[in-house]
C-alpha cells in the first residue's frame, strides 16, 4: 500500500504544523460516522457468515430438533431472532428490516443481509470520499469495491429465486463473504495507519 504510506508521511508533517487540540477535534469529527458505518458492516457481514453456516448445517440435518423456529415467527420477530446472535443486534435489525420484503426463512434473510451489506459498504465508500479532505485513499476504496464485488457474486447465487441452496452455493457464499470481511478489515487497518481514529471498531475473527 505505497499510496497509504506516502499519505501517512505527509499526514505526520501536516499534523506537526497544527495545534494539538485542533488535531484531536479533527480526528473525532471524521472518525465517528465512519465508526458507526463500519460497525454496521461488520455486524451484517458476520451475521451473513453465521447464517451461511446455519443453512449448511440444516441442509445436512433432517431431524425435528434441528429445524429452526423461524417459520413460526412473523417477519419482525424472525429478524430479531437472528440479529440477537450478533454483537450489535439493534444495528443489524435496523439495516435488515429496512427491506421492503417480509422474510421469515433464513435463506431470504441471508439474501437481504447480503444486500444490506452492499448498501452499507457503498455508504462507507461515500463517507471515505467525503472525509478524505482530498488525500489519496485509493487503496482503501479499491478494497471496498472488491468487497462489494464479492457480495454481488453472493447475490447472484439467488438468481433462481434462492429456492435451492446447494452445498457448493453455500460454500461459495461463505468464501465471498469471508473475502469481503477481509477487504473491509484491511481497509480499516489502512485507515488507522494514516491517522483515522478507529480504535473502537471491533475486529471480527473468522474462525
From TrEMBL:
Instruction: Give the protein name, as stated in the record.
Output: Pectinesterase inhibitor domain-containing protein
- GO molecular function of the protein, one example? enzyme inhibitor activity
Keyword Flavoprotein among record annotations: no
Identify the residues that the record assigns to the Pectinesterase inhibitor domain, covering every copy: 74-201
Keywords noted in UniProt:
Membrane, Signal, Transmembrane, Transmembrane helix
Q: What is the lineage of its organism?
A: Eukaryota, Viridiplantae, Streptophyta, Embryophyta, Tracheophyta
| InterPro entries membership | Invertase/methylesterase_inhib (IPR035513), Pectinesterase_inhib_dom (IPR006501), PME_Inhibitor (IPR051955)
> Pfam families of this UniProt entry?
PMEI
Entry similarity comment = Belongs to the PMEI family.
Indicate the transmembrane segments per the record: 34-57
- Would the keyword Transmembrane helix turn up in this protein's UniProt record? yes
The cross-references to PANTHER family, in alphabetical order and at most eight, read:
PECTINESTERASE 1-LIKE, PECTINESTERASE INHIBITOR-LIKE
